[in-house]
Amino acid sequence: MNCVKFFSSFRLMKDTNLTQHIMKSYFLILFSAICLTACSSSDDASINEEDMTMEENMDMEDEATYSGNFISVAHPTSGVASVNKEKTVLKLSNFKSDEGPSLELYLATDANASEYISLGALKGLDGEYEYDIPDNVDFSEYNYVIVWCVPFGVNFGNAILEMN
Questions:
Q1: Is 67 exposed, middle or buried (0-12, 13-18, 19+ CB in 10 A)?
Q2: What are the pLDDT digits (tens) for 115-134?
Q3: Distance between CA atoms of 78 and 125, rounded to whole angstroms?
Q4: Contact 117, 109 (CB under 8 A)
Q5: Which residues, 6+ apart, have CB-to-CB distance to 57 below 8 Å?
Q6: CB atoms within 10 A of CB 81
Q7: Which domains are delineated in the chain?
Q8: DSSP 8-class letter at 1
Q9: Within 13 Å and on the Cβ side, how many CA atoms surround 29?
Q10: Taking the C-alpha atoms of 161, 78, 54 and 41 in order, what is their torsion angle to the nearest 10 degrees?
């Protein structure tokens, strides 16, 4: 009789361990599903933000006659420069550059600003900015947009405007 009791209690203990194992597995699967769902939601949101920014830039370029991407020269500079169809406004999009003394935005004939038209003081170092363009600018000649440090005569960065 003791032998039967022993095997019965062993079987009950074995079933309890199996039940605990199954419960732990279900909990782990449920926890993993919640984590993956939460992670994928934030990834989708960032992808949608990137898509929206790319779509805005594409719309802006569709409305522009000339555009170009900034490259760094003496300081980190990035973004897009574009000229509207009426050739009255130069827009800087997703623009970033370093701080410096007396920075101006030039339309120039080359990266050295041998001949240039000043559009005025740089309006900011990070964001979207618009500058009025003087009448009758020939963009086949003045095709460089330059962030120029006036006191030191340094090109921080520039974009070469190309016809769209």
A1: buried
A2: 999 999 999 999 999 999 99
A3: 10
A4: no
A5: 80, 93, 94
A6: 26
A7: 65-163 (2.60.40)
A8: -
A9: 6
A10: 180
Strands annotated E in the chain: 64-72, 77-84, 89-97, 103-108, 116-121, 126-132, 144-149, 154-160, 162-163
Is the Cα torsion angle 137, 142, 147, 151 positive or negative in sign? Answer: negative
Query: What is the rounded distance in angstroms from the CA atom of residue 129 to the CA atom of residue 121?
Result: 11
Largest CA distance in the chain: 110
Please give the pLDDT value at position 74: 97
Q: Which amino acid is at 157?
A: G
pTM: 0.63
